Amino acid sequence: MKRLIALYILMQFFSMISLAQVKVEHLKTENRDNPIGLDVVLPRFSWQLNSVKRNVLQAAYEIRLGHESSLSKESGLDWQTGKVASDSSVHVVYKGSPLQSGKRYFWQVRVWDNAGKASDWSKPAFFQMALLNPSDWKAKWIEPGFVEDSVLRPSPIFRKEFSTSRKISRATAYITAHGLYEAQINGKRVGDAYLTPGWTSYNKRLQYQVYDVADLLQQGANAVGVTLGSGWYRGFLAWGGNKNSYGKDAALLFQLQISYNDGTSETIISDESWKSSTGAIRFSEIYHGETIDARQEKKGWATAGYNDKEWSGVKVVNHPMNVLVATFNEPIQKHETFKPIKIFTTPKGEQVIDFGQNLVGWVIVKARGKSGDTIKINHAEVLDKKGNFYTENLRAAKSEGNYILKGEGDEVFEPHFTFHGFRYIKVTGYPGELKPEDFTAIALYSAMQPTGSFTSSNPLINQLQHNIEWGQKGNFLDVPTDCPQRDERLGWTGDAQVFSRTASFNMDVNNFFAKWLKDVAADQLPNGSVPFVIPNVLGPGSSGSAGWADVATIVPWNMYLAYGDKRLLEEQYPSMKAWVRYMTDSSRNYLWNKGFHFGDWLSFMVDNDLGGRTAITDKYLISQCFYAHSTQLLINAAKVLGKMEDVSKYTALLQNIKDAFVKEYVTPNGRMVSGTQTAYVLALHFDMLPENLRQQAADRLVDNIRSYGNHISTGFLGTPYICHVLSRYGKTDVAYNLLLQETFPSWLYPVKRGATTIWERWNGIRPDSTFEPASMNSFNHYAYGAIGEWMYQVMAGIDTDNEGVGYKKIRIKPQAGAGFTNVDASLQTRYGLLRSAWKVENGKFVLDVEIPANTTAVIYIQAEKPELVRESGKALATLNQNGKVEMEQGYAVIKVGSGKYQFTTDWKNELALNSSSNK
After folding, report:
1. DSSP string of 837-872?
2. Among the residues of 611-717, which ranges form H helices?
3. Catalytic: which of 182, 488, 772, 871?
4. Which residues form the Alpha-L-rhamnosidase concanavalin-like domain (predicted)?
5. What separation in angstroms does the CA of 251 have from each of 156, 159, 314?
6. What pLDDT, on the 0 to 100 scale, is given for residue 916?
7. Which of 83, 270, 361, 524 has minimal CB crowding within 10 Å?
8. 870: CB partners within 8 A, 6+ apart
């Protein structure tokens, strides 16, 4: 018995040692798990430390990289750093010998913590390089060899058979298209990405995808089949029947590299030997939907042995290869599925299905009927006042599916090269009774990892957060679109910049925006002006609007703050600089007061219930504010990148811009020429006013808000900052009032109307249940969801310090109020999980905080004095070596390292205990 007890104690001892030891997990290359197809020649590596102990920091690391077997043998490595004294665990740059096209590399890391203890080696991760040189491409561009129907443009299909006689060790497919593609090998789909190759400025940057397809191949006869759709390349885009934005002919580029166990290799390429035809997809457009005629399906066409004697050949064409770039951002994939929550007949007698959520994607339909039966599916976001199916706000977009049955038992229809924004579908021609089991809605969006979570004691705010997230999901399909349902769906720069920081809380958008920003730079005009939409399909004349074009400076800086991505900042710096140059060249005496500007888009318009007023802000006042803001961000970037000459140059420019602003738009007594909320918000947020005029400007802002009955009146450019400004100037109670306002205009008005996404307009559905003009009335438009940033940063108090961006140095400063009894928010950072959760109960304020390893945090706890605050039952001062705790404007301030903490204090804050939302 004694021996058993001793053995048990020994096991417990070693278990404790194991738990105390730092573990290295979540290895990523270029922010992705085991990516295949990188053309980044100096990739960056990141990892996370996992420890149950507090105050854990990394003191050193060691990386080794090579073939999979070389890691275990510790020989034949391609790169080994040795022990590097550094606390860097994010974006550590590869510094080994040049990486080779198509080669797969494995790597692992170990670390030493600040106690000098070493971790075990991590589990290996891998990455595979793409084709690094145009000469690596052996494939030829091919187009259909038949005469195309130039009106309906049915999807062309291509096929090629080949044989393999040896055992395959690895097989990699490289695919892209002019248009969209879906590929099959031996009748099985290649990959789980949709709407590939995605949308870029195709003539400058055309993405290709890389797939591991070894499991799809077989010894002996094999076949490749590829279907193309018009997509963004040649489909309808924007308005007025505009199509063929990048070209009029669909084309395919396909290369399959096969490696055999005996060391030999073989390459299958698109070339003259392929065949082409058409199949079941008779029409496919992003705006208008898809027609599938099952009677024209060529069964087995993507498998070996299919008889293609009646097929046409292909045309080999000369398209440039130097524009090809590997895809490093997350592909569009299928995500949530929804079953009908209601099937009903409208007052007009139409059969409609409600899926309960406004989403973006499509519906899979199951049916059984006769040959030639045609099912028509229309899509809509809302029902009208009478409960009828409403599609007027789709404008020219037909957004429909037409499915023609073959008549051979159960049939399943699913689109391929389109997407729809919808909550409801109208079903016409369905053979039989509509049943829930026969209809499934599927959400499509870029496969960004969810990172943020936000909940509170207020169900309406929780629904608002839900709506913000679904607005992002529905509009982040390879590019950040403004809306997903009407004949638009374009990458509007203004929408993207105002929402980018909120987006970084909800999901990991580092690579998503890094990819899109490359197109911002690619489509930026030679004079530095930035187009309204990216990719630019509106032409060179549609550019240069303040608050839209500033995407060139705002989003790179926001990504740097959120992820510490210095490389992105460096790559976008010339674009940032060019935009500031454009504004300067367009100015006279440092005053930018010419050109077209959207202004504070969709700000509050006249409403008799609120005094018959409007809230139009001088557009040139706005442009001057953004001129200053972009210049400040350029200065910030220059400091980070060590460009001190630029720092001096643009610091002088910034002062001149602000001086010109005060002279032109501010009276000697500090009143703004435009007395709107947006005017005061921008002037305060961008520090346009002298210090002595700022507090009274904040007071005037509050007066304006109260004059609107505690309602917001800002548009796209003022809304993202208004609550931040109020909190900054000690008016958090007013910010809470705005957040919790339930009547129009407010964030909660759409929530109370049953919205499941963010609306384009404050009153897309009016109080009398009629609609705003259908010419511009989207019910899935994420811009006003920018309030999410304030909810995370102020309500929950989660922020990154500018001296330790990417949450290397963390600030936790929750500002409770307005009757909320709890707020719980978390964020999966590059270092691990960060959490701030507070609650008010039994007269106590309790703040639970979790800080990831290899970071530090400064935590602010509202208290009259530090002696009233306890941490896990102990005096707060015990957390500091010197036993002192600073007080700052009603907060006890404590610096901590990693770990979990619980702070408790008596709570006498009337703002938190008494709702002031309607005062």
Report:
1. EEEEETTEEEEEEEE-TT-EEEEEEE-SSGGGEEET
2. 619-640, 644-665, 677-685, 691-707
3. 488
4. 345-444
5. 9, 13, 10
6. 37
7. 83
8. 876, 903, 904, 905
Q: How many CA atoms lie within 13 A of 168 on its CB side?
A: 21
> Residues of 169-197 as b/e, b for ≥16 C-beta within 10 angstroms?
ebbbbbbbbbbbbbbbbbeeebbebbbbb
By the 8 A CB rule, do 290 and 417 touch? yes
State residue 11's pLDDT score.
Answer: 47
Residue 676, both tokens: 């709107």
Question: What are the structural domains, with CATH classification, of the chain?
Answer: 22-129 (2.60.40.10), 134-329 (2.60.120.260), 333-446 (2.60.120.260), 452-795 (1.50.10.10), 800-913 (2.60.420.10)
How high is the pLDDT of residue 37? 97
DSSP, collapsed to helix, strand or coil, labels residue 663 as helix
**Consecutive 10-residue averages of pLDDT for the chain (919 residues):** 52 46 97 97 98 97 93 87 98 97 97 97 98 96 96 97 94 98 98 98 98 96 98 96 95 97 95 98 98 98 97 97 96 98 98 98 98 98 98 98 97 98 98 98 98 98 98 98 97 98 98 98 98 97 98 98 98 98 98 97 71 82 98 98 98 98 94 95 98 96 95 96 98 98 97 98 95 96 98 98 96 95 98 98 94 98 91 89 85 96 80 37
Contact between 254 and 224 (Cβ < 8 Å) = yes
Question: What CA–CA distance (Å, rounded) separates 616 from 628?
Answer: 21
Place of tokens 């009032």: 737
> Active site includes 488?
yes
- Token pair belonging to 711: 């309602």
Q: Which amino acid is at 793?
A: Q
